[in-house]
Amino acid sequence: MNNPTKRFNLKFSRSLTGSALSRYFSFSALYTAQGIPEGITFFAIPAWLAMNDKSALDIAAFVGIIGIPWSFKILMAPLMDRFTILSMGRKRPWVIFGQLGLILSFLSIGLVPDPLNNMSGLMLTGFFISFFGAFQDVATDGMAVDVIPIDEQARANGLMWGTKIIGTSVSLIVGTALINNLGFSLAISSLAIAVALIMLVPIYFTERPGEKIMPWTKGEANHESKESQLRSWKQILKSLYRVVRLRSSLIFCVAVFIIGIMYGLVDTILPIFTIQELGWSNTFFSEAFSIINILAGFLGMFIGGYMVDYFGKLKMLTLYLGLIAGIIAIFAFTTSFWNSNIYIYGFILLYYTLYTFLCIAVFASGMNLCWKTVAATQFTLYMALSNMGRASGSAIVGVLKANFSWDYVFYITALMPLIMGIIVQFINFRNHQDKVDSFTVLDHTLVTPHVIED
């Protein structure tokens, strides 16, 4: 017997809840847009600064500053949960606003005079690019939690994270080429065009059927959106506290902060290490890094989500963390091979492939620990803690390099996944979900009499 729902889901629908293909396409495009500011601010600009002989301390300070907005995403999420233009969807209006902010912030960097000798101006505009990148990230994640069914989460995370990596890599290689040929300010400002094109996606697709495309067009709020919309700060904070204080959630908070430190360390170290220590040019770094990451992104898209679904979250988290700790430690130990570009390529390829797989497992684990009532804010809390760790890791690179040789810097970096690998063993997903289900049953019991009475 034919299933009409499955036939419908295999086609594009104007609403995200109506079609899996629409969801995959839209979130892939939005995650590609997230990769653009990251590729430019975390990789292209640091590589350009390193190429122009800026110190490790200056570069680490820049990366630390642009990492700050990503650390405070948790302040943005409750705002989005509390307020919205409900007739346009719960999170979609915020996604469009974040895209618009990204366009303006990319254009504004062209106003910075002499950016090489004006680090404060460069940091300020870089901060705003990161702010709206983080803003769009929060809104997109919240919309994903709302409209992606549970049985699609791992596969969707693989596709989304893979396209983000590809967006980061393509923006890095294109941005670097533009910087070298057009000059810094014009090159970075021109990336607003790519963001503007991607902005058409959230403008075209609605979250649910019947919603407005824009505030002045026809449409109305969907019944499901009205039911799930939180209308009280007290409700948001109380619900968040109830679920985050559970043991597995608290352990996951610590774990994602620690692994965030590793992300920040490696992302900041690589352009400085390859350009100033190994003598690469910023063009050579961006091309090698981008090609490797595009490959890692494709592997993540087609394998990463499947592996988590098949073997389980905890097993894959443990495996990926152990492998990452091992390859970083081996790289630190084999300094005699650092003069071989092939060896460096191999290390970067292994690290970023495993990094992509790890991120997919971390995202899927975070979603699994979320309580649907406050899932967007809770998931953003996990990601904000990871980004706090990332900003911390980026900020301490200059201090580490001033006191240790490169091999010891890598040894210290290898400790982070090792520590997280030990901590996650104390997470019990099934027990946590049972407790979350009991919250839902209790809330339903308490709310139902009030609804009937009304």
Automatic annotation (TrEMBL):
Record bears the keyword Iron: no
Transmembrane feature ranges: 21-49, 55-72, 93-113, 119-138, 159-179, 185-205, 250-276, 288-308, 317-338, 344-367, 379-402, 408-429
Domain spans labelled Major facilitator superfamily (MFS) profile: 248-454
Main location as per UniProt: membrane
InterPro entries per the UniProt record, alphabetical: AmpG_permease/AT-1, MFS, MFS_dom, MFS_trans_sf
PANTHER family in the cross-refs: MAJOR FACILITATOR SUPERFAMILY DOMAIN-CONTAINING PROTEIN 3, SOLUTE CARRIER FAMILY 33 ACETYL-COA TRANSPORTER -RELATED
Identification of the protein by name: Major facilitator superfamily (MFS) profile domain-containing protein
Native source species: Winogradskyella aurantia
High-level lineage: Bacteria, Pseudomonadati, Bacteroidota, Flavobacteriia, Flavobacteriales
